[in-house]
């Protein structure tokens, strides 16, 4: 049914989502990749300028490209909606270190117990 205000029953946002679902939202490069490219270009520019100066090493050049810049460019490419800050890998590492920590504590307790037994 068509109301007089021109809106159909289906909300506008549902249409938009339908159109986007199952296809790449935009063929443009993700913003992260654009930023990463700009940052890298700027670093190259600075390094070139610096290489014209004497004592390049002393000035802290060449500038390092931080991994984070690369990581950002990959973020936009990920098809999965998993949040950046909690990738499954990271969580498994957290779990491992926690388990190792607990195992260490248990070992220490066992050690203490066996030492106590040896003394008595």
Automatic annotation (TrEMBL):
It holds the Pfam family CagA. Residues 54-91 form the CagA exotoxin phosphopeptide substrate mimic region domain. InterPro entries: CagA_C. This is CagA. It comes from Helicobacter pylori.
